[in-house]
């Protein structure tokens, strides 16, 4: 009798073990299935919340993304507190950053996002799992959790944890950390749907600027349009643009040496002291002091300053200037590094060319260009209708990105 009971118990244990094994997948089997999912997927839509912890205060953005084979993307980032929305598009004409409310379009010719990923793009997340042979794997209730190396442009981002739904591998949550395991970027997906039916008009630049009615993608009955951040590229105006989309350089020439530190002193002083009242209007890309008789900045211009300063750096001064014929301000910094930050509000044109190497600032896209000697670099980006130019011959690129990402605070606040 005891022998029979022992035999039954052993059989039950074996059955239990087999059932448990069938219900649990190991890392290798999950990775194989993820490879199949990302290779066979035709489209997806997602929306959620992205929080940046890179500054003194967390910055929260609503993010929505649409993807359609072979290479169409539509991403929207919204800062609800500041009522600022920017859209990133990739279509047959290139990569565009749009600010519809202000009628601004900036165009890049780029392989983005193939050459640099985004934390809210499904392909980026899955590729980071597939490419990391030392990946860590865990099971957390209804999620598979991967801890892998982060491969982003920002070198301070070291690792990321990715939560995927067990049932269909949709993304649920992402945390990107620095070398000290501090969370720098966090994305929580509220909705995510594979193989959504998207019309090509969803990715049309003119329609997204409000010059027509694009067929907006929807999720869960929502009628909100889905929505946003790169290698060496030069920008050209889009072919087939509307007649009212005029090209504008919106700043200095790519090869022109940009003022910073003592160079900025020379530029400003030279402009101030070298002419009489008959001085010509500065040409595009030329820095000049503002006229004393008129206000330096246009109505509605809000000057911003970085909340992050590299160690050993302090603000030197703030000047009212004209740059490329546009009124604005120039903030100068000195110490361990010397750099200048120029802020202007370009004329209300629809299309501007953006030269240089595309970079991701989290809340928008930017471009880094250099002078002929490759010594001075300028990081240019636009946000809420203001164009920013951060120029330095000494500031490392990683520090430039940190400074640019922190330009979120109104001056005097």
Automatic annotation (TrEMBL):
InterPro entries: LolA/LolB/LppX (IPR029046), Sporulation_related (IPR052944). Keywords: Signal. Residues 207-289 are annotated as: Disordered. Residues 207-216, 233-245 have a biased composition (Polar residues). It comes from the Bacteria. Residues 1-20 form the signal peptide. The keyword RNA-binding does not apply. PROSITE patterns: PROKAR_LIPOPROTEIN. Residues 255-268 have a biased composition (Basic and acidic residues). This is DUF4367 domain-containing protein. It comes from Paenibacillus mendelii.
């Amino acid at each position: 009798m005891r022998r029979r009971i022992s035999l039954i118990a052993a059989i039950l244990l074996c059955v239990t073990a087999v059932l448990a094994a069938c219900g649990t997948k190991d890392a290798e089997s999950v990775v194989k299935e993820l490879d199949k999912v990302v290779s066979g997927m035709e489209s997806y839509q997602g929306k959620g919340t992205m929080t940046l912890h890179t500054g003194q205060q967390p910055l929260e953005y609503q993010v929505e993304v649409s993807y359609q084979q072979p290479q169409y993307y539509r991403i929207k980032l919204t800062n609800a507190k500041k009522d600022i929305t920017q859209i990133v598009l990739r279509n047959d004409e290139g990569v565009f950053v749009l600010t519809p409310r202000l009628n601004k379009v900036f165009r890049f010719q780029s392989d983005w996002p193939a050459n640099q990923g985004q934390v809210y793009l499904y392909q980026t997340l899955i590729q980071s799992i597939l490419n990391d042979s030392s990946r860590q794997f865990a099971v957390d209730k209804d999620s598979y959790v991967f801890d892998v190396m982060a491969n982003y442009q920002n070198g301070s981002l070291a690792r990321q944890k990715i939560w995927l739904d067990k049932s269909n591998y949709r993304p649920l949550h992402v945390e990107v950390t620095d070398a000290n395991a501090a969370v720098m970027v966090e994305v929580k997906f509220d909705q995510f749907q594979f193989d959504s039916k998207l019309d090509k008009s969803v990715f049309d630049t003119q329609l997204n600027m409000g010059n027509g009615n694009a067929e907006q993608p929807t999720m869960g009955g929502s009628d909100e349009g889905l929505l946003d951040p790169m290698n060496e590229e030069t920008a050209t105006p889009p072919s087939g643009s509307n007649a009212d989309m005029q090209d504008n350089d919106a700043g200095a020439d790519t090869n022109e040496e940009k003022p910073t530190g003592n160079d900025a002193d020379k530029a400003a002083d030279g402009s101030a002291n070298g002419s009489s009242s008959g001085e010509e209007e500065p040409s595009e890309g030329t820095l000049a002091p503002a006229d004393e008789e008129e206000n330096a900045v246009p109505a509605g211009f809000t000057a911003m300053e970085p909340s992050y300063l590299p160690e050993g750096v302090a603000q030197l001064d703030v000047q009212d200037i004209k740059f490329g014929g546009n009124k604005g301000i120039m903030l100068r910094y000195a110490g361990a590094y010397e750099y200048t930050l120029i802020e202007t509000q370009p004329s209300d044109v629809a299309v501007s060319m953006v030269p240089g190497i595309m970079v991701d600032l989290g809340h928008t896209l930017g471009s880094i260009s250099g002078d002929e000697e490759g010594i001075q670099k300028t990081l240019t980006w636009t946000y809420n209708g203001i164009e920013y130019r951060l120029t330095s011959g000494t500031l490392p690129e990683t520090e430039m990105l940190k400074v640019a990402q922190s330009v979120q605070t109104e001056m005097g606040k």
